[in-house]
Amino acid sequence: MRAAGRNGVRGAMRAGSSAAFLLLMMFVGGLGLWVGAPIAWLYIGGAVQGATGSVGAAIAVILVGFVLTVVLFVPVLSWLSRRHAEARAARGLDDLGRAALEGVMVVSATVAALAFAVWFFFLSGAEPIPLGLPN
Predict the structure, then answer these.
(1) Three-state secondary-structure class, residue 115
(2) What are the Cα distances from residue 31, in Å, to 66, 99, 114?
(3) Which residues have C-beta within 8 Å of that of residue 54, sequence separation ≥ 6?
(4) Cα-Cα end-to-end distance for the chain
(5) Backbone phi, then psi, for 109, in 5-degree steps?
(6) Chain-centroid distance, C-alpha 90
(7) CA dist., res. 123 & res. 135, Å (int)
(8) What pTM did the predictor assign?
(9) CA distance 6 to 23
(10) 13-59, pLDDT tens digit by residue?
């Protein structure tokens, strides 16, 4: 009888750690969507523009490629969200619906936006407001 109780607790603990791991995977997927995919498609578009000399072709490749990437990411993130809900249910917790995925996407988008702002204003060497001041 006691062993069954331990297995139940161990199963709940495993479900909890798998739920946390799934949240982490959703966060990484969100960062990949907000940061990795745009950088990758800009790189590919630059290569296309360098090879063809056509800015239009490069922009078309970037737009089509990014849309396809989003179309591929959405089912994966949705699957992770369903697995997270199942892990919560295994622990006996309430079903939050899509709240976990929505929260992860908001946090990952905020982190990506802040990272871009830091890069743009402090690391890129660009002058955000063209004042013409000497460096």
Answers:
(1) helix
(2) 14, 18, 12
(3) 48
(4) 75
(5) -65, -40
(6) 25
(7) 14
(8) 0.71
(9) 26
(10) 455 678 889 999 999 999 999 999 999 999 999 999 999 999 999 99
Cα-Cα-Cα-Cα dihedral sign, residues 55, 61, 64, 68? negative
* Structure token pair of residue 130: 């063209």
Q: How far apart are CA 125 and CA 130, in angstroms?
A: 12
CB 46 within 8 A of CB 58: yes
Tokens of 84: 């997270």
- Provide the greatest CA pair distance for the chain: 78
Give the chain's radius of gyration (CA, Å): 22
Amino acid code (one letter) for 22: L
Residues near 11 by Cβ (< 8 Å), separated by ≥ 6? 90
Query: Residue 66 has which token pair?
Result: 């990014």
Look up residue 82 and give its two tokens. Answer: 């369903």
Give the DSSP H/E element, type plus range, for residue 22: helix 2-31
The position carrying tokens 């988008």 is 109
